[in-house]
Write a structure and sequence with these properties.
Order of helices and strands: EHEHEHEHEEHHEHEEEH
Number of helices: 8
Mean pLDDT: 88
Helix content: 25-40%
Radius of gyration: 17 Å
Strand content: 15-25%
Strand order of the largest sheet: 1-2-3-4-5-6-7-8
Structural class: alpha/beta
Largest sheet: 8 strands, parallel, barrel
């Protein structure tokens, strides 16, 4: 499977339209009220309407944290009136939120928490895990990255995470370690919409984004293991 790119924290249709022009087809919308990228439901609905004719080729995840059942259910029920729930998933980081996925029978991505005995890794709705490049750097500093890569590879070979996708989250100015790129089967590279590509609050700077996008391509293409990246 070719690697692809995902943008996190889309907060309006204007930014979504701009990023779509670069061929990006994987999106994360943040429903956490305290997040700088929090999106109101009506804006999210507008974004989904914009993607409505191409949802078969786009992938959308909805990030929740400790949200009330009725709020999550309302988002899902409203979506059903916009479009079939195809290529939609949850994005979770607290075990209590897994019930949202189970109640609505929607697959979910899990922010890796290093608790390998957690039942979440055996949940049939688990679509993939999200690993932070910052965590990898901390492990590198403590000389534990190699052990982690071996353990994660063992989980995949043992079948626990055999078919799950692996998403690597990192920031625009973060240098990706070749040890991670070479030895982890990354399916998706995930980047946030934040101050590094904005000139003000929720004001995407198109030139800044283009500059970072170009540098990102150079960085990844300089690593021999990333030839399978599906560039937009």
């Amino acid at each position: 499977m070719d690697s692809q790119f995902r943008l996190e924290g889309i907060y309006n249709t204007q930014s979504l339209t701009f990023f779509m022009s670069f061929g990006v087809k994987n999106w994360s919308f943040d429903f956490r009220p305290k997040s700088f990228n929090f999106i109101q439901q009506y804006v999210f609905n507008d974004c989904l309407k914009l993607l409505q004719d191409s949802l078969s080729t786009h992938f959308v995840s909805m990030r929740f944290l400790n949200e009330k059942d009725f709020m999550v259910d309302k988002v899902i029920n409203d979506l059903k009136e916009i479009s079939p729930l195809k290529n939609l998933s949850f994005e979770l980081s607290d075990i209590s939120d897994v019930t949202h996925a189970e109640r609505n029978n929607i697959p979910f991505y899990w922010h890796y928490d290093f608790r390998l005995d957690s039942s979440v890794y055996k949940n049939p709705l688990l679509k993939g895990i999200i690993l932070s490049a910052a965590d990898c750097q901390r492990m590198q500093a403590s000389n534990s990255l190699g052990h982690f890569i071996i353990e994660l590879s063992k989980l995949k070979s043992d079948g626990i995470l055999k078919n799950q996708e692996l998403i690597l989250h990192f920031d625009w100015s973060q240098e990706l370690m070749s040890s991670v790129l070479d030895f982890l089967p990354i399916n998706t590279f995930s980047l946030p919409i934040n101050h590094q590509i904005e000139t003000g609050y929720r004001q995407v700077n198109q030139e800044l984004f283009k500059d970072h996008w170009t540098l990102l391509k150079k960085q990844l293409l300089s690593n021999g293991s990333t030839k399978s990246i599906n560039w937009p």
